[in-house]
Amino acid sequence: MVNSTYQKFVKRWEEVMDLPPQTVGPLTPYYKALVRRLKVMPWPALVLCSLILVIGLYLLIGSAITLLVSILQRGF
Amino acid sequence: METSLIVAFVDFGRNVIGLVTRPYETCRRIVEKANPLELTYVGLVLALYFALASLVKVASFRPFLLTRQFFVLAGAAGVTYCLAVAIFWGVGRLVGASGKLKGLTVLWGYSLLPTVIWFFVTSILYVLLPPPRTTSVQGIIFSVLFLVFSITLFLWKTTIAYLTLRFGLRLGLGKILVVLAGALPILGLYSAQMYRLGIFRVPFL
After folding, report:
1. DSSP code of B96?
2. Interface contact flag, A66 B139, Cβ < 8 Å
3. What is the largest CA-CA distance in chain B?
């Protein structure tokens, strides 16, 4: 048990020494809060973000989004 | 060799699931192990897509045209991949990156998976529901769903690309933004050229 905890500690220590945690000055808490949602199972956050963007786009350009999709569909 | 390929296949499967469920840990693990054999399976997935895209683009069973289209797409994607890795590596070194080229190469290969999924689904939808979309209720609902799908994959791709530069080049956010500011204009010009040649209208990055 102690050995396992110690091994985890050593692994984490090596990770931190290898690449220090990211900080962004006074915005660090917000950055950490955002990143926490993306580290494990990011899909709910990604889909929600996409949905908000698309609704915003629809409110902005209305049914012209169908034109955008028609262009994208020919984009492959 | 066979054993290595099987091990690489198992790792590839684990990493794909990991990129979906735990992208941060998985990207770190991919860079640590950096097994180039795993790129074989990324290449196979891409080849499957290029075969489908050739069928959709040529739209007739003419072996010569299909083969030519396949090699044009595969060649262009290969050149784009090498160019992207070279640019990120070159600009990264200029700003003091200390990562290993092998890690960057393997992880950038994995970052092509969201791209190929988008292209794959778009190709199939092109056959099932060919454009243009109308402004009817059904057309708008489809458009909203397609855009949500596209933006979600784009954000996933952005996350993996960021982690590729973070772990592959061992850089902080500030330097990653500098690398992107240096690399994206070049990749933008290259993508415009691909568009002009009619190979990829949406950049295959």
Report:
1. T
2. yes
3. 56
| B133-171 pLDDT per residue, tens | 999 999 999 999 999 999 999 999 999 999 999 999 999
Locate the chain A residue with the closest alpha carbon to B27. Answer: A39
Chains A–B, number of C-beta pairs less than 8 Å apart: 107
- Dist CA B140 CA B100 (whole Å): 46
Per-domain residue ranges of chain B: 2-197
**What is the sign of the dihedral through the CA atoms of B57, B60, B66 and B68?**
negative
ipTM: 0.89
Q: Are A46 and B125 inside 8 Å of each other by CB?
A: no
Give first-to-last CA distance, chain B, whole Å.
Answer: 30
Q: Quote the tokens at residue B42.
A: 């990324």
Question: What does the DSSP 8-state code read for residue B73?
Answer: H
User: Between vectors from CA B18 to CA B75 and to CA A35, what angle results, nearest 5°?
Assistant: 100
**pTM > 0.80: yes or no:** yes
Cα separation of B113 and B67, whole Å?
23
Token pair belonging to B145 = 């769903």
